[in-house]
Design the sequence.
């Protein structure tokens, strides 16, 4: 009788099943990455607003943030010159802007930061995201305070 060396079909299937279970637990959760990117994009927008507020105060010149909902982005304009232009890309959608001048869901709107660092009108900017829910960013006229509120 000859000795055969090899594995049986049951042994091969068992090993493949164990490997597939191990791979299942080792694959990273990609939704975490998407949420992280969305959150960072909204935080970057908040930093840009704070930058505009500080720059208007320090340089003693008005600066405008011009929102373009149809293109899902904004521009920072000083002395009729575009300082920064940004378009949201990581799943963040600019949904609406509610200023004391009116409510806007399409087209463009702008908020001017005066030389005192305060915005010209109170505003609530609403964002929708694919994975993280909704964000509301509120600008206060009296204090120039910027608040981010997450709505799930």
Sequence:
């Amino acid at each position: 009788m000859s000795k055969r060396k090899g594995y049986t079909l049951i042994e091969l299937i068992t090993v493949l099943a164990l490997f597939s279970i191990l791979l299942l637990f080792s694959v990273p959760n990609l939704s975490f990455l998407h949420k992280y990117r969305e959150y960072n994009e909204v935080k970057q927008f908040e930093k840009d607003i704070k930058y505009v507020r500080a720059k208007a105060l320090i340089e003693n010149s008005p600066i405008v943030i011009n929102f373009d909902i149809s293109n899902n982005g904004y521009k920072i304009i000083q002395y009729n010159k575009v300082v920064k232009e940004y378009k949201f890309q990581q799943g963040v959608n600019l949904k609406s802007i509610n200023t004391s001048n009116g409510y806007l869901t399409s087209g463009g709107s702008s908020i001017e930061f005066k030389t005192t660092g305060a915005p010209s009108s109170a505003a609530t900017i609403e964002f929708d995201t694919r994975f993280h829910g909704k964000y509301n960013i509120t600008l206060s006229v009296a204090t120039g305070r910027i608040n981010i509120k997450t709505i799930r």
In short: The radius of gyration is 25 Å. The longest strand covers residues 92-99. Strands lie at 63-68, 73-78, 81-87, 92-99, 102-104, 108-113, 123-129, 134-139, 146-151. The mean pLDDT is 84.
